[in-house]
Amino acid sequence: MRYKVAKKVSIYGILGNTFLLIIKLIGGLISHSQAMIADALNSAGDIFSSIMTFIGNKIASKPRDTIHNLGYGKAEYFYSILIAIVMIYVSAKLLYQSIMSFFIKGNYHITYHLIIICLITIFIKIILYKYAYKKGKEINNLLIKANALDHRNDCFLTLGNLIAIIFALNNIFWVDSLVGIIISFWILVNGIKIYLEAYYVLLDRSIDEETIEEVIKIVKSHPEVIKVNHINSTPIGYQYQVNLTIFVDGNMSTYESHEIANHIEKELNKIDIISLAVIHVNPCEKEP
Fold this sequence. Notes:
Blueprint: H1 2-31, H2 34-60, H3 75-103, H4 112-139, H5 142-169, H6 174-202, H7 209-220, E1 227-236, E2 239-249, H8 254-268, E3 274-284
Parallel strand pairs: 2-3
Antiparallel strand pairs: 1-2
Helix pairs in contact: 1-2, 1-4, 2-3, 2-5, 2-6, 3-6, 4-5, 5-6
């Protein structure tokens, strides 16, 4: 269910951004607007991101097997790295072109079609944002929520493009280059953020402190547990496998101690971010 929803969101994103890429690129090339061309390439980056999300989502949905015991969840982050690298490259190229347009006078032919393109873009992006945000919230999918925020951010970028066009109507053309530079930096910053997030997960970043505190609270709610330690976690996609050790009364039978561990594991597995909880049981002297 989770991956089917993500697949549908990705497909809608691809279709919507493909349409926007075509009209922005045509408008940008005809008018020689650096801001509109930058906005078009931003849409191209969105298409690539949606495709990579689609592919990564498909691979990540495969169940774990004898070759990949923890599943294929990290594929999502591997493809995120590819998305980030392309975004950083595109932003660098756009930045260069936009800076050069300050010094090299181009033939900027302003038309009212550019305003219509901006308004269409904002309208479509608002629809995509509301849909993706709703679905991301329903299934608690961080990747879809990130895509939703990207749609929302594109609304602001296109609004900046619209402002540049309005200035151009009054023969103030340098704003077009400025907006192109701003969009370039925007893409660069987001590319770096995606890269770092995926990079840390692939380096097995541990679970957040808030979840660790929740885990400890659940474990300590069982009076039979004398103490808990050796808590560690491994990311397996958007979720984690959590391992920990509990200490119980050494006089307790093996069956009883493992029954306690089984109950705790079931409770921990109900936490959304935890895919699998594994508890080791050690005996110790009962505190007086």
